[in-house]
Design a protein that fits this description.
alpha+beta, outer membrane lipoprotein receptor (LolB), chain A, 13-stranded antiparallel β-sheet, two-stranded antiparallel ribbon
């Protein structure tokens, strides 16, 4: 009986050590990733970010502008056939305006859709101070992403969303995410691939190309901490790419 108890105890110690090693490995990868993209100190200085680029939709280039104020609001504008469409997400709600789909005025988004999108308000990223933000991680070993050896980490966001992240083993850049989201009442997976990493004057490294399956996005410029007129986060009707002043 004593030998059995000792065996059980030994197994428990080994299992606990295994879990601890996995947790340390995830922390180590995240620490090296943050260092590779400029360091936590530089990222914590970011209060706003404005990205200007284009989406390639079936060969048609659609201008897009994404403006985010940290933890407060984000607005995505895209122009199709001279018509400005937008999506606004704030810490309190969200609206969409898509005249290309026949909308004649901004419409409020559902609570579920707003909740699913509010993680995007964190311009510093979910990995900076991830524990303090209520995010949890688990190391899933290594995997191959189109010929690139990657470390694989599962993150459970504080909101409950699950995301699998892939980090290039050679430089610790985050090159792919697979995110589970709820769409039309069903759970679906969204995959985003990141590439063309460039170091900005502020010292951070940013992916200038993103392909999320809705058409690749190529960024032309990324502006950090420039003044933002926060009135843009209030839903307004626009016409021919300009705000309606009526």
């Amino acid at each position: 009986m004593k030998k059995i108890r000792l065996s059980i105890l030994a197994s428990a110690i080994v299992f606990a050590s295994f879990l601890s090693a996995k947790a340390q490995t995830a922390d180590e990868i995240i620490t090296k990733h943050i260092a590779a993209i400029g360091g936590a100190d530089n990222w914590k200085k970011i209060k706003s970010i404005k990205m200007i680029g284009s989406i390639n939709a079936g060969g048609m280039e659609i201008p897009v502008t994404i403006t985010t104020v940290n933890k407060k609001a984000q607005r995505v504008d895209f122009v199709v056939n001279g018509m400005t469409n937008y999506v606004i997400i704030t810490d309190k709600g969200g609206w969409s305006y898509a005249p290309i789909q026949g909308q004649t005025k901004p419409e409020a988004m559902t609570d579920d859709n707003v909740k699913q999108s509010q993680d995007q308000l964190d311009v510093q990223g979910e990995l900076i101070d991830y524990k303090e933000k209520g995010n949890k991680v688990a190391f899933l070993g290594k995997d191959d992403v189109e010929g690139t050896e990657c470390y694989k980490i599962k993150m459970t966001h504080a909101s409950g969303k699950e995301e699998t992240m892939y980090f290039d083993a050679s430089n610790y850049y985050h090159i792919r995410s697979v995110l589970k989201v709820i769409a039309n009442g069903q759970e679906v997976e969204q995959t985003a691939n990141y590439s063309n990493f460039q170091k900005l004057p502020e010292g951070i490294v940013y992916p200038m190309n993103v392909d999320s399956g809705n058409g690749p996005v190529a960024l032309k410029s990324v502006e950090i901490n420039k003044p933002v007129d926060e009135s843009i986060f209030k839903p307004q009707e626009v016409a021919a790419g300009k705000e309606d002043k009526k």
